[in-house]
């Protein structure tokens, strides 16, 4: 086992990988509660959605850990599930069964692109300066997610965002957790993020901010209402798929998942020290894991499955190999039986972990050539748009639009990979027809 996962080469051990896998699970366990609620708005049975969410995470994380050997966990993606429920089903009026078909088609396209090596070629063509920017931008993005979900930052009609009410129990709990995390990190305590999550949850229960779980074990709900329904329109009403609206749905799922995954892979792998010569080893396998997970998830009954940036929490806790992703997958399997206990892992509990990880990820800013304006412009916009636009994909799109322009104007066109020029026009289409 140690040899397969290259423990010696990566300088890791079972304890670090297990702690890292547990930390990643705790940081992303919220999806087991959030995703069913969102998909229920589309008409999907909440119990079935809960099981589908867990199964998609198990399949994706196992494939990523065993095949690609990366400490990256997968689960149905936030943002994509909202697009599924509120835009595709809600605004477009497409039945949720057909929406799942759209996710299925996007997964099949992912697989084809991964088999041909196109996805890996695109990721390796991205200049290292923009990869640093993507990593830092994702760090700011997940920090903002943590601040917002915990109530430390709230919306404001006057200034868009402002500081929240620190007399609110959940917000005060998140601040307490952040203080604990900072103390542990400064003191270089092993597993600091994991300890922070556990201690914060215990404090929340003791103070009454977090309700005690009603039960410990519950029966696994049935997925008969969602399993395989993605294939129904293909087998029984294929003509309903032959329209521009459905095509846009498929392409949107394809585009956002492609670049969300690309950004997450680069960020997590860079933080774990796994990037070699500006390239991701086994990138093709990692991308294939994402593609297979998306396809499997659609057949089980959930929206697009993607790599989770919360995996950086596990990396910060010590994870370096795919064994950590396997641990996370096992915990998702266990969660199927112990779902009531997840009630104590609230956004206030996970917010400190996200904020600390964000702090760690923006360290890549030091590697960007800020003194070269042609580099500074696309890098800065990539970093800025992710949190302000609340989208990893949009941040990448804006930065990648400006990069070939500034490089051409600086007389450095030969340094731009030809794929970056193609992506320039792809992103223009993204903003015209998708955004």
Automatic annotation (TrEMBL):
Record organism: Kurthia sibirica
Membrane topology annotation: Multi-pass membrane protein
Compartments where found: Cell membrane
Highest classification ranks of the organism: Bacteria, Bacillati, Bacillota, Bacilli, Bacillales
Transmembrane segments: 21-42, 48-67, 74-94, 100-118, 130-154, 166-186, 193-211, 246-268, 315-334, 341-363, 375-403, 415-433
Any GO molecular function: purine nucleobase transmembrane transporter activity
GO cellular component: plasma membrane
Family: Belongs to the nucleobase:cation symporter-2 (NCS2) (TC 2.A.40) family. Azg-like subfamily.
UniProt main location, coarse: membrane
Assigned keywords, A-Z: Cell membrane, Membrane, Transmembrane, Transmembrane helix, Transport
UniProt protein name: Guanine permease
């Amino acid at each position: 086992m140690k040899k397969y996962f290259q423990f010696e080469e990566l300088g890791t051990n079972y304890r670090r990988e297990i702690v890292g896998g547990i930390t990643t699970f705790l940081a992303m366990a919220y999806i087991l509660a959030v995703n069913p609620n969102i998909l229920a708005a589309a008409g999907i049975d909440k119990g079935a959605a809960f099981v589908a969410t867990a199964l998609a995470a198990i399949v994706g994380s196992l494939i990523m850990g065993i095949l690609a050997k990366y400490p990256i966990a997968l689960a149905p993606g936030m943002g994509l599930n909202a697009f599924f429920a509120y835009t595709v089903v809600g605004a477009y009026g497409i039945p949720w069964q057909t929406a799942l078909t759209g996710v299925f088609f996007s997964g099949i396209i992912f697989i084809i692109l991964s088999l041909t090596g196109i996805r890996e070629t695109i990721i390796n063509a991205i200049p290292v300066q923009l990869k640093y920017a993507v990593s830092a931008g994702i760090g700011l993005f997940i920090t903002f997610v943590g601040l917002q979900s915990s109530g430390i930052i709230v919306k404001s009609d006057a200034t868009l965002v402002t500081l929240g009410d620190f007399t609110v129990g959940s917000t005060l709990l998140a601040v307490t957790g952040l203080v604990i995390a900072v103390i542990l990190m400064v003191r270089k305590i092993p597993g600091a993020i994991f300890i922070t999550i556990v201690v914060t949850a215990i404090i929340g229960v003791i103070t009454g901010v977090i309700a005690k779980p009603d039960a410990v074990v519950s029966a696994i709900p049935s997925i008969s209402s969602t399993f395989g329904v993605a294939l129904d329109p293909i087998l029984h009403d294929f003509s309903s798929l032959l329209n521009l609206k459905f095509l846009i749905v498929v392409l949107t799922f394809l585009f956002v998942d492609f670049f969300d995954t690309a950004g997450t892979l680069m960020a997590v792998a860079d933080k774990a020290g796994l990037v070699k010569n500006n390239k991701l080893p086994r990138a093709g396998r990692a991308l294939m894991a994402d593609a297979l997970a998306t396809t499997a998830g659609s057949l089980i009954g959930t929206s697009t499955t993607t790599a989770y940036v919360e995996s950086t929490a596990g990396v910060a806790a010590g994870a370096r190999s795919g064994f950590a992703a396997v641990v996370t997958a096992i915990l998702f399997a266990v969660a199927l039986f112990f779902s009531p206990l997840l009630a104590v892992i609230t956004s206030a509990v996970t917010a400190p972990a996200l904020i600390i990880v964000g702090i760690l990820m923006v360290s890549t800013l030091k590697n960007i050539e800020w003194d070269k304006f042609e580099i500074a412009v696309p890098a800065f916009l990539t970093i800025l748009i992710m949190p302000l636009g609340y989208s990893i994909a949009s941040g990448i799109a804006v930065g990648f639009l400006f990069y070939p322009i500034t490089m051409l104007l600086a007389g450095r066109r030969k340094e731009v990979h030809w794929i970056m020029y193609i992506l320039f026009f792809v992103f223009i289409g993204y903003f015209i027809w998708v955004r």
